[in-house]
Amino acid sequence: MLRFALTLLLFTLAFGVLSSSPVFSDLILAKVDRRIDLTSQIVRITTSLKVENAGSNPISEILLSFPENQAKHLAYLTATLNEGKGKGKASSGAGLPTEVVIPKDVPDSLTFYSLSLPKGLGKGESLLLDVLAVFTHALEPFPEKISQADIQLLLFQDTAHFLSPYKVMVQSLAVKLPEARVESYTKLEGTKLSGSELKYGPFHNIPPFSYLPIIIHFENNQPFAVAEELVREIEISHWGNVQVTEHYNLFHGGAKSKGEFSRLDYQARPYVRGASAFRRLVARLPPRAHSVYYRDEIGNISTSSLWGDSKKTELEIEPRYPLFGGWRTAFTIGYGLPLRDFLFESDGKRFLNFSFGSPINELVIDTLIVKVVLPEGSKDISASVPFPVKQWQETKFSHLDLVGRPVVVLEKNNVVPEHNEHFQVYYKFNSLSMLREPLMLIFGFFFLFVACIVYMHADLSISKSSASYLAKVQWEEVQATVQQIHNIISHCLTAHDKLEASLRDLSRTGDVQACKATRKSVDSLLKGVSKDLKPLVTFLQSSPQAAHILPKVEELIAKERDLQERLMAKHTTVVDCYEKKLGGREIENRIASNQQKITSLRQEVDDLMDFIDEI
Amino acid sequence: MAASDAPNGDVLIRNAFGSVLAFLILLLIGVLAFSIRLFSVIKYESVIHEFDPYFNYRVTQFLTKNGIYDFWNWFDDRTWYPLGRVIGGTVYPGLTLTAGTLYWFLHSLNIPLSVETVCVFTAPIFSAFASWATYLLTKEIKGVGAGLTAAALLAMVPSYISRSVAGSYDNEAVAIFALIFTFYLYIKTLNTGSLFYATLNSLSYFYMVCSWGGYTFIINLIPMHVLLCIVTGRYSSRLYIAYAPLVILGTLLAALVPVVGFNAVMTSEHFASFLVFIIIHVVALVYYIKGILSPKMFKVALALVVSIGLAVCCAMVAVIIALVASSPTKGWSGRSLSLLDPTYASKYIPIIASVSEHQPPTWPSYFMDINVLAFLIPAGIIACFSPLSDASLFAVLYIVLSVYFSGVMVRLMLVLAPAACILSGIALSQAFDVFTRSIKFQLPSLSDHSHIDARDASSENVVLDDTIKTDKNEDTPKERMTKRSKKKEKEPVEKPPTKFQIKKRLSVLPFEASIIAVILLVLLVAFYVVHCVWAAAEAYSAPSIVLTSHSNDGLHVFDDFREAYAWLSHNTDVDDKVASWWDYGYQTTAMANRTVIVDNNTWNNTHIATVGTAMSSPEKAAWEIFHSLDVKYVLVVFGGLVGYPSDDINKFLWMVRIGGGVFPHIKEPDYLRDGQYRIDSMATPTMLNCLMYKLSYYRFVETDGKAFDRVRRTEIGKKYFKLTHFEEVFTTHHWMVRIYKLKPPKNRIRGKNKKSKSKTSSTTTSKRKGTRRNPF
Asked: CA–CA distance from B569 to each of A305, B578, B637 (Å)?
């Protein structure tokens, strides 16, 4: 409290001196109405001025002055000409251009903004101006540290008189406070507190640079959410999506909490024990936002809800824990938006039209960095922002980029919801570039498969004469030969089956001639087969690689031959018997011994075939 | 030749078709292995699970940020305060390096995945690799069919899923792949005798050593197999090539890993391999001499060598035994010792015994973790014996040993799982082989009897159907062969011979029986699949840092751990020290980025005992211990409000035991009433006054007026008390994590101090002694 009083004293002294200095210009402020809105953490001062030119020269600029302690918190200043004569308050669209000026003969502790009027203000003319000044961090918590159960009290200081380099004829001040207790306020003449509105004035004929300090000490339990840093990344994909990712670094900017935090108290009576804390924030996202996520560096945060209609999407998020004064947290919100809502085309250029500030309500942002990531291959990039920002370009490498995506970076300090105006980023982009990455993938996989095919078909042995290579080649030949032998034997076996079948047919039909014909064809077939078999076996015998299979193969061939002979014998016997018209029982007896051997041989041959096939 | 050309081409095409089909099946198995592990991501979120994975994640973050050289030299000062930990030298780097490489690879392609994402999906990717490795290994043992079956079984075996769901970023995730792959390369070398594969085998072994302490399983199993082969007279040069390079190269490479270093030659775990290395050389020498000498001369030489050799061996053995016996643990590490003697840990090292995964498993856990495989294993063993080859001998040895080890420690169920899958794969494949073959051979003959007139058409149709069916089922070479012979039989217009089939039928099962058996087997496998999916979805996919419960009004999420860690990380000073029981050490360093006193790498028992002592001491003594450790915050986990059973009160007896093991003034009986652990009004005063009790139940009574603890299902003993040396600074939404701050030391007033000293001196002298022993 003492510090405050001291600074105020200094101010009064300084301005006391100032007020005696000569009149700055010929302008007169005929009427000043100020409204100060203290309902949230952001202080908004709306001033409507009636400016009259009392001098003889036309004037084209008007100076607005702010004391130093306010100027450094000034986040947003706009002045509009009010031509609607008070009624309807139809302000003339765009604000007047403002810029900081340092006039001569004024104390350093004042900062001046000059408003340039579109046309000079002639002698005796007057105009109406609406000025909106928005301040952040202008409310000071007092006491600075509170415990969990305490309410948060804030101090606000300003001047009751409008601080201006011009003479003010009539002025009044209204302060809108939140619907809560007012601890104390500076009482002046005609001060009235009605409900939550505090009124000062009207004051008449106040000289320039008059400063009458007032202090208001009041309760405010609004969320003091301050983002120390917010990085918004807006990534444009011409496949139809705008992806927005916002990294928040948030803290509670109100009175710092001290001592214990008891969950019990907080849960039992959250609005008494923990009134100053906030647990939820509401973000108004653009309509048709989809794939919304809310997480921090250690994972998803499950406490959020989302609903929306055709005009907006509302996302309510709760940090992991309720934020008490001075507590911090960090999180990320991401969402996708349809491209057609934000990307437009004009004179061969495309431009993105997007809002600058954060979608979260009543959030103060100390440093806001907006990054617009344009698709790879964009050219002629320029950004237009309705207020001054720092601007530069970066490159970002993302999915399968070769040269990187150009990034337009905009940085601004002290951002308030009033900055949620649209800005534009213009660029040129050839739609064919969109196909670059899919084509890259297609060709990548294509060449991969081609390489595989080439590898499978090429012989990559280093030395064609090495022992192991030769052995491998030989072994492959041996395998091929064995396979051939296998085929031939299985041919033989089918031939045998044919014979057996013919015998069975014989037993059914008694057609001896057909049976003989089959026999003949099988005979010729088997002869050809044995001819084929010879060179293969000799090859196997000559090859050292085949040493360990050779016995099996030879055994197989021998067995098969044996089987063949026995089968022939059986066949002959049966046919003979039929020709002799012997009885079925007789035939059975004659071939019985042979039949048994055939069965066992067939079994053995099959086993050997299995074995050889597995090689 | 012209006649044999056409069928040759046919065979080629069929072979190609078979391999393409096998490739496709393998691809699908890989997809299955990957996707069955994604339940956790779908049901919860893409997040790292449990405790150890958080440490690995943190190490990976460090690696990707600072590079490999800084990683080797990393001294971590955020843990084991004030001792710190040399991470580069005490961590198995395989997993971290794998994920780091993956990350670098992706980023070099400009695919901006975060480290976390890479870590979360490392385990599922490697389980796909592991199932492919299983295919290769089983193929070497019993052929393609068994390989595919085993790979499919492994892709979804619950035991392996439990350690490799997405987010379970632990050593085992890559180690099981390395284990199976090393075994595959060993068997491959054994089957081919190729030095190329032997070298690959050593490299794969090196990767395994990098990844997991379980590499000792390999370096003991392979020597055992070699020894068994030698004993059963299966020695061959292939065996020598498979083993000797592995020992030499493998040991050299293993010694390169900092955490192993000279342990690769100094500890008893590795002795078996060296012993067998000597033996195999002796045997090789004997075979060589046998080859160049005549049998008679050989007998003489044998007698000579054996007598001298025995003497030398005795001397060597004596020296080794003396060396080993001179070290207190006989050169074995505690965990390995508890493998050999299951009661060792509970007797001597409570810190190993306190970890639930080091306990012996219960019978239901076998059914839970390997399910029907447990019944198929014996069949697989039998299948391995007909015929017995070097490779199938290995499979048998592997299963026998891993069954033993899994019986000692739940954790090693993981080693059993691949063995169980391989043997069950063999069993299933052989069974299907037998049954489908018997069905196939009888189908045509059946139709033969019924449609004897129209047999030409019908029998061929049946055969065709049958071949198509088997194409879909299994693709073993045998069946391909039979198919091939079938096709050839079809070439002539005449029908297939019945006699041939009748002969075959003698060696096969009856038709009806085999159909029923096939149906039963399919049912069994279906049951297994259902169980696996259930286990993956319900039992093993919970990340354990986020808990959920279903109630009438929907899903409840308990995200208290992260709430507390987020609070710590944002609202305390960067260099503040946080004390908690060691379970939460890794998570605190990784998620809250605060210095902890002890963590899950339980390398310093005294330090853990100090924290245990503090938790089990009364408030003032505990404050002194914590203050001496520079601790600013104490974190306790309390489940009494919502009924979360694995909280600190339930772990408290271990704190007492471990603390009491080092500081004898903490006595376990002081905390037990008649040998029972209780916190209700019957509890001992020591229990009701210890710090853990107070921090857990501080102001608990005000929640419901009765202080009913939902985990212990009782009202607590002491309900109203105040904290004098600690203050509550944060409690999470469901009270699961409570964080207290140490109050600053009070200004000393001479007289008061003296008074309190004289008052308490008689009761607390012993305790003071204890705290003085505390090295900090």
From this structure: 25, 11, 17
Q: Report phi then psi at A35, rounded to 5.
A: -125, 125
Q: What does the CA dihedral A76, A79, A85, A90 come to, rounded to 10 degrees? A: -60
Return the pLDDT at B493. Answer: 36
Specify the amino acid at residue B183: F
Distance from CA of A181 to the nearest CA of B (A): 29
Q: Are strands A153-159 and A140-141 parallel, antiparallel or unpaired?
A: antiparallel
Q: How far apart are CA B670 and CA B658, in angstroms?
A: 14
Interface test with chain A among B115, B448, B500, by most A beta carbons within 10 Å: B500
Q: Where are the domains of chain A?
A: 26-82+95-219, 225-435, 467-614
Chain B residue numbers with beta carbons less than 8 Å from the beta carbon of A301 are 559
Interchain CB contact of B588 with A (< 8 Å): no
Can you say whether the dihedral through the CA atoms of B16, B18, B21, B26 is positive or negative? negative
Rounded Cα distance between B663 and A82, Å, is 83
User: Which residue of chain B comes nearest to A488, CA vs CA?
Assistant: B4
Whether the predicted model's global pTM rises above the 0.90 cut: no
Q: What topology does CATH give the domain A225-435?
A: Immunoglobulin-like (2.60.40)
Q: Six-digit token pair at A369?
A: 């960095």
Mean pLDDT of B424-436: 91
**CB count, 10 Å around CB of A50?**
18
Contacting residues for A526 by C-beta, under 8 A, at least 6 apart: A492, A495, A564
Q: Which CATH number fits domain A26-82+95-219: 3.30.460, 2.60.40, 3.30.1330, 3.30.710?
A: 2.60.40
Query: Residue B510: CB partners within 8 Å, gap ≥ 6?
Result: B438
Distances (CA, A) of B280 to B228, B313, B396: 11, 14, 21
Residue A85 zone, left/alpha/beta (φ > 0; ψ -120 to 50; rest) = left
Question: Which of A298, A497, A501 lies nearest to residue B566, judging by beta carbons?
Answer: A298
Helix H or strand E encompassing B367: helix B363-370
Give the DSSP letter string of A441-460.
Answer: HHHHHHHHHHHHHHHHHS--
Residues in chain A: 615
In this complex, the residue of A300, A399, A532 whose CB is nearest that of residue B45 is: A300
**Chain A: closest CA distance from residue B728 (Å):** 5
- Tell me how close the Cα of B323 comes to any Cα of chain A, in angstroms: 46
Q: Is the peptide bond before A202 cis (omega within 30 degrees of 0)?
A: yes
* B537 or A94: which leads in pLDDT: B537
Mutation target among A258, A462, A487 for the B interface, most CBs of B within 10 A: A487
Does residue B64 sit in helix, strand or coil? helix
Helix (H) or strand (E) segment spanning residue A128: strand A126-135
Q: Identify which has the larger pLDDT, B329 or A253.
A: A253
Phi, psi at B726, each rounded to 5°: -130, 155
In this predicted structure, the answer to whether residue A333 has a pLDDT above a threshold of 80 is: yes
B526 CB-contact burial (10 Å; exposed 0-12 / middle 13-18 / buried 19+): exposed
Name the token pair of A65: 């002055």
CA-nearest residue of chain B to A503?
A: B497
Sign of the four-CA dihedral B225, B227, B233, B234: positive
Give the best-scoring range by mean pLDDT among A99-103, A144-148, A405-409, B445-449: A405-409
Q: Is the dihedral of CA B279, B281, B282, B286 positive or negative?
A: positive
Interface residue B10 vs chain A (CB under 8 A)? no
* C-beta atoms of B481 and A609 within 8 A: yes
CATH topology agreement for domains A26-82+95-219 and A225-435: yes
Tell me the chain A residues in contact with residue B565 when contact means C-beta distances shorter than 8 Å: 298
Q: Tell me how close the Cα of A309 comes to any Cα of chain B, in angstroms.
A: 25
